[in-house]
Amino acid sequence: MFNEEQYFGEFGGRYVPEALSSALDELDRAYRRLKDDNEFKHELESELNDYVGRPSPLYLADNLTSNLSGSKIYLKLESHNHTGAHKINNAVGQALVARELGKNVLIAETGAGQHGLATATVAARFGMGCKVFMGEVDMKRQYPNVYLMRLLGADVIPVPHGTRTLKDAINATLKYWIENIEDCHYLLGSALGPHPYPAMVRDFQSVIGREVREQIMEKEGRLPDMLVACVGGGSNALGLFHPFMDQENIRMIGVEAGGRGDGPGEHATRIAVSQPKPGIAHGYLSYFLQDENGQLLPTHSVSAGLDYAGIGPEHAWLYKEGRTEYVSVRDHEAVEAYKVLAGSEGIIPALESSHAVAFALKEAPKHGGDHIMVVNISGRGDKDIFITAALTDKDNWKNFLKEEACDV
Ligand SMILES: Cc1ncc(COP(=O)(O)O)c(C=O)c1O
Questions:
Q1: Residue 262: how many CB atoms within 10 A of its CB?
Q2: Closest atom of ligand 1 relative to the 115 alpha carbon
Q3: What's the CATH fold of domain 55-84+206-391?
Q4: What's the CA-to-centroid distance between 346 and ligand 1, angstroms?
Q5: For 127-206, where are the alpha helices, taking DSSP H only?
Q6: What's the pLDDT score for residue 1?
Q7: Across the chain, what does the average pLDDT equal?
Q8: How remote is the CA of residue 368 from the centroid of ligand 1, in Å?
Q9: Are domains 8-49+86-201 and 55-84+206-391 of this chain identical in fold?
Q10: Which of 72, 87, 131, 167 is flagged as catalytic?
Q11: 109 included as an active-site residue
Q12: DSSP code per residue over 172-186
């Protein structure tokens, strides 16, 4: 049955097996009630302030701004949150909802490990069990987070199927949820999946944009001209964009992973291609990278968190409405931006966020100094050391690994 509240235009919905419908209904009802409940709002706010460390800073990148001689560049530093990324905002919110539902186990999928880490963290915080499903390829490239999740008491379950990345982890988590629906809450990590996840995750992440609105008014006395964020499933971007939707003259740019080429399996650009393709997977209707039979195509990105064939349904709708714009950045440009930000501001961004920085490096010089751009640094780069050190400091890194391996 078509239920308007479940859709963003034609996108979104709830395409799930019967076994999940009642759990999603229960979640939907609970979330609708709690989001307007003062006690819930108060508890969420104090967790965000005292545990996560909000508000995160809005920092004027003055070295970068003067080096590029263009837009005034502000960085929203979600990297400074507890656990090092925006993912914790949503994890705290959903853990409180799960507790209200009487669930005592949190299950989650993760790509970059940041969402798994955030889920394992809140599970420890609220005394819940935790299982995190992660593709084998992602476990290898984001090993520091695998170690940390286990340290926090989570059971990290390798997913050996398919491309062994995020899409396979989502499938495995959905399957486990169907089999264990009574005790478990599926703490989904991005603004995608079946209703009510896309709207609920967006709401929990909108704290990012609400803070930016206040902070920029304090610093500049006006709102910015452009907002920039990387887009995996789309939660950090929507979190930044959403509180500015009433401002028609603010441009909102989502940066997708352009990988290493345009061929199938070489990138994860869903919208910034010549013709985005609508389809249904993982419980929702949106744009997906897919073959002629509707099977999801393999994807590639240097950043595990952007390496996914789908994009949240609200992005698909906003794009179709012409409200948001999407561009694509190659792996090597993101790695270069990672180095530039480290060297110019002493801030090491996650490889995901480095895609947004790479776009800013190209865009800023096109504007004058009266143009204000806010770039979301969705996470910090510590987790990427096994990738970036191998790319930017290969010989030293190899020697270090060899010596460490001999010592163990
Ligand atoms: C630091 C960071 N940024 C961005 C993303 C992409 O997710 P989303 O598009 O939901 O913000 C991830 C996903 O793992 C991430 O870890």
A1: 12
A2: 14
A3: Rossmann fold (3.40.50)
A4: 21
A5: 136-141, 143-151, 166-179, 197-205
A6: 39
A7: 96
A8: 30
A9: yes
A10: 87
A11: yes
A12: HHHHHHHHTTTTEEE
